[in-house]
Design goal:
about 90 residues, Rv2632c-like_sf, alpha+beta, DUF1876 domain-containing protein, 3 strands, Double Stranded RNA Binding Domain
């Protein structure tokens, strides 16, 4: 059995009613996948910072997931010579 470790770094920036997150995933061969996410708080909403953090991070991680799936599809197509039509996360 082999164990591999990939690292994700997430940076969250808050400004007024906007929260931005950037997620960076380092892959097995030092590949870098980056995703960005933003959350906006309506003026009428309560100021609950962790909700904006969680939403922005979820969106950033979703971006990383899409980038990684795109990379996997491209590699499968290169190795098999066939088009990949659908890859799903989960």
């Amino acid at each position: 059995m082999r164990t591999k470790k990939w690292n994700v770094e997430i940076v969250i920036t808050e400004s007024d009613r906007t929260t931005q997150a950037e997620a960076r995933l380092r892959g097995q061969n030092a590949e870098l996948y980056v995703g960005e996410g933003t959350a906006h708080r309506n003026r009428a909403d309560q100021d609950i910072p962790h909700i904006g953090d969680e939403l922005a991070v979820a969106r950033a991680l979703n971006g990383v997931s899409h980038s990684l799936l795109h990379e996997v599809a491209a590699e499968i197509e290169t190795r098999t010579g066939e088009s990949v039509h659908r890859l799903r996360a989960g």
